[in-house]
Each structure stands twice: as structure tokens, then as C-alpha cells.
User: What shape does this take?
Amino acid sequence: MKKILVAVDGSEHGWKAIEIVRTLGECKALDITVLHVVADHSLYRNYGFDMTHEGYLNEAAKNRAEEVIRQAKDYFSDYAPGNVAFAIKSGEPANVIVNTAESEGFDTIVIGSRGMGTMTRLLVGSVSQKVVAHAPCSVFVVR
Assistant: This one.
């Protein structure tokens, strides 16, 4: 385990994932990337949601992503053992996480077991389940 992608969404389990990665990194120098994926709200049109406020939802999601990454940067501000990078991407979260891990050569993904999207989980399944099923590397799911 050397190059870790930690996916965060601002949920309690996401912050626990960050805490575990930092603890691991203090034992062994790791290259860490903290990733927040902004879900594309147009994805929910197929599920019958009225998207008259889609622009507002996308702006709110972007602002939330920036806040989550700011908090993660604060948390890692005094982290010295390795490198920490931060990224915000958009799309379907599980696909973005899996594709990022594959294209950027991560050997481990760390993700919370449950995130912010209860409705999404009911409709299309959990992000962590999809990541485990399709990841090109080891996945550490945090509760």
C-alpha cells in the first residue's frame, strides 16, 4: 500500500475514512489523494425527479465539494510523512472513483461505507458497493 485514493463526501463515514488514511500515513509514508465527486444531478432525470432547480442543485453541490475539500486540506495541513493531493471531479461517483483509481494507478481505495445519498442508495445502490464490485485495486471500506 503506497498510493491511496480516499473518496470523501462530507459524511461521518467519509471523515472516518480520512482519519484512518492519515493514521496509516503516519505509520508509513503514503501518497494520498483526497477525492470528492460532485454528482451530476442530470443523472436523476431518469428516476422521475423534477429538475426545474437543476442549476441550483449543481451550484449547491459545487459549493459543498469546495467546503469538503477545504476541511480535508485543514485536516492534512500538518501532515508530513508523504504527499497529499486534493481533487474535485464530477459525474457518477462510483464510476469516477473507479476510473480515477485505474487511470492514475492507485493501489488502494479507501471509502466510507455509507455516504450522504440515502435516496440515491435506495434507487441505484450504494457508491461503496459499486466501487468494491468494479475497482481495479484493493478497497478498504470504513464504518
About this structure: The two ends are 20 Å apart (CA to CA). Helices lie at 12-27, 54-75, 93-103, 118-124, 127-134. DSSP finds five helices and five strands in the chain.
